[in-house]
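Quick log. Single chain, no ligands specified.
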Amino acid sequence: MQRLKSVFRHTAINTALSLALLGLLISSFNALQPVDRLVYDSMLRLWPRPATDGLVIIEIDERSLKELGRWPWSRRTHAKLLDTLTQLNAAAIGLDIIFAEPENADPVADRLLAEAIRHNGKVVLPVLPEITGLRKEGIKPTLPLKQFIETAAGLGHVDIELDSDGLVRSIFLEAGFDNRKWRSFASVLLQVHHEDHTLKWQGESRPNTHPSRSNLWWRNQRVLIPFADNSEFQRISYLDILQEKTTDLSLENKIVLVGASAAGLATRFPTPLSGQSEPMNGIELHAQVLNSGLQGFNLIQLSKPLENLLTFILLFATLISSRIYNNKPLIPLLAGMISAIATSASLFYFALSWFSPVAVLTVLILSFPALNWQSMKHIGRTLLFERQRNSATLAAIGDAIIITDSEGRIEFLNPNAEILTGFTLQEASHRHINTVLIGLSTDQAKFWSPSLLLKSDKPVSTCYLKAPNGNEYTIRLSCNPIDMPIHETKQYMFVLSDITETVKMSRRWKYLATHDKLTGLPNRIKLEELIDRNIADEKDNNCFAICFIGFDDLKTIDETLSLSAEDFLISAIAKRLKTCIRIGDSIGRWSNDEFIIIFNRTDDKERIAILAQEIISVLTLPYPYLQDIYSLLPRMGISLYPHDGETAKQLLTKADAARNSVRKHNTPAFCFYSSSKNTPIPNIDQVLELSSVDQRVDNLSPDDQQKLEAIRLRNQELKKTIQSAKSSSKLKRLLSSPFKKT
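-> predicted structure:
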């Protein structure tokens, strides 16, 4: 009860309220907006959305410009395109081309285009806000010609707003000029496709803040864009549609976007995913918005009042709870940080709302030194006035305490300081602190003098201490002046906090982030880093090979196995692979049943083929587990640097493609990547011979040896059957599943 009462002391509540209000101010005024955006972009990259198949992009690309001539083209051309799309039964067409001026050279072309729009009945045209002056008030809408407006199914604005850092993260579902209002281009297309869709799609309200002013372009209903992989959208050249080269194309119940993608013609916008791909053009941004609308991903920014309330609650609850653990404020502060991150991630992934945890994390990080500093300062004052109680109090402190005079001569050591320094209080008394802490060093200096903190503006330093007992510690050394009565000699308190375990924990976290927990092998992140490091190596004759290994039959076996048996098989595969690689090679786990081997400093296919054969021979050995024996079918694809690619993504993609070329053969095999469609694979007889080679069975039980013998007999029978088979279809049927649980 006494500890609970201390929580509600005025000082504790005032401190918690002050820090919580500080976080509220940071959140309200977006003081850390760049950091907020960095966290948002990182979370967005970790959550890529799938691309829908109900959307087709028709690009005005370089090839189309080369064939059809310089831009702009005759509107007869666009009319012909619309007639073709009408014949293909497109559900809705977004024509992202501005027709604001009549075609004086061919007036009939305007009439033909208007007829094509009317005949289709599902064409949406853009409204473009253009800057006519230097100020925002100079933005005015540019609309299509009247005859096009009358025949179109709808108009949608194509206004795109950049954030202050120059990236596009959101779009406004509504925009207008004075009293006129238009829905966004993508929103109108969705309404044409599904009449009730627009009513279900709402964003963050941001109404016109100057309703009394005229000639003002305004925006409303802001929604965040949950970006998908831009390369997954179906794309077709404008020229191919015009020349009817896509005879097998079906646009039934699909939305079609027509716009420019050629360099110099299309404006490009950087996005949070621009670090992984090129900036997006306008038609691609509309495709991203349509993709989120078609799949129901309505990602919005949490309202500012709700965000402020959530920030205040998280901070106040954490800071109040820290008073219960007054001596260990790190525990509630860490719990508060984890809670803020978990709340943000949960709202982002499940509620499709973005809540920034930056304000909470910043205040909690800043509050830790303050809470720790106040605690140590209070202890120092108590030690000064209570000499008889000093020894007991300081002995109970987990940190090492050294008190010196203004010249650095030692006057007191607590027991922890005696252990760290190897000196007793009597031995260290009146010695200089530099001679007692002689084993100190830093990252910059092999030998470091703690007396430098006496006159330093930064009274805290992280350093390393080698104790007389041979142990090495990472410590946080702080030096604080002690307020003394008048005419008393000034004293300083050195506090040595052992943060060795904290540093080890940090390194452990880094290791877990880059290694697979089950096998201890590098994971996907670490493998990509190793490949990029090899590519960046500027040494002469820089070459290496990527070996992509997969076990398709492991997925089938997993359905009948327990988790412990599945973990056993994966661990056994990893152990066998470790015995197969050379010194200097790297191995890692790519996914559940996929592994990667990096053969460094070689592009000799013959040598690599020998290594691959050795690996297959090891991996095809039976896997005894309890009362059963399992056999697996490894398939390997190999790509070479720099022959097959110059980036990690290219090398991995081509190695996986090589592996896919042997997956149709139900045998263990490997293959090098080749641009040829018919990539050769190892001979079937050779693979069966490899899988039936004599194995060491000394350590197997009699039952396991009988099962292993049954597998060998089955392989011999299969080989004889293959030699006598007269057709490839019969061979494929016989080899449908030669390696299964016996």
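DSSP finds 27 helices and 27 strands in the chain.
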